[in-house]
Amino acid sequence: MSNTIRKGSSNISENLVTDEKLYRQRRQFVKTGIFSSAGLSLAAYFPTLAMAALSDLPNRISDAPNTRKLDGEALNTFEEITTYNNFYELGTGKSDPVENASALITDPWSVSVEGECEKPGTYNLEDILKPHNLEERIYRLRCVEAWSMVIPWIGFPLADLIQRFKPTSNAKYVAFETLYDENKPLPGQKRPNLDWPYREGLRMDEAMNPLTLMAVGLYGKPIPNQNGAPLRLVVPWKYGFKSIKSIVKISFVEKEPPTSWNMANAREYGFYSNVNPQIDHRRWSQKRERRIGEYFKRDTLMFNGYEEEVAHLYKGMDLAKHH
Ligand code: MTE
Known about the structure:
By secondary structure, the protein is of the alpha+beta class. The protein contains eleven helices and 13 strands.
């Protein structure tokens, strides 16, 4: 993975504040509108509305209540989040994903569910999303390249999705794959930068942790292609490469599954890849990071600031060995 970091500029922090303020005001307006006109949320009156079809997804996304804030840390702007990306299928440069975004076709979309579960099958996106209540969660995203952002995701807990497929007791890990059609590769898949398809995986208890999110939107809008439309994982205490984009396959497996960056260079990218300022990457320090939009570096937080919620998952494990 390259380690090119865009330099911040002096007027960006003001833009960040303005952007966040406008976004909050807009959301407040939407909520007040619903409450004053109907007296109650419409979804509460008509539960079937919550089961709306895919065409209603934008409304469900824009109405998703915020369930997790990050006090004292400004949101990155929509522009920063959607123009500075890592998505090797669309190119290795930071602006390649937005420039090549139209090459990713997300309609129709289906997800194949396989392996150790009682309900395997091919589910279209509508079936995947239908029963889930969407929520907004503001998380830090810390890339292994030592830059970070704060992103208001819209999604639902991965645990809720997993439960629907009824994994068996043999399911110790969950493996994920990104779209890859050999006959119609995406621009970045024409080069063997990685062994396509992009693959990721989590231990079952990591996948079931309430922080782990399936994202379908950000900033109150459907997730843009460059950020992993229509469905991507967000694992906020791990380096960003674990948060696999544009998922087409979920498999329940007994053994630790192969994962793309680990396959590419196991010494540099471990299966766990928990954010840890004490364990440096072999080619650079992980002690500090650059928040996109800020000039000065900030300290990297253990488990990216989510230690209280996830440290118990790794009790007794040698974190340096299982990096
Ligand atoms: N998923 C796929 N399929 N392909 C990728 O190249 N890059 C990862 C991750 N998910 C990647 C991916 C990396 S390295 C990071 S840091 C995050 O996506 C970046 O997410 P963002 O572009 O939405 O900020």
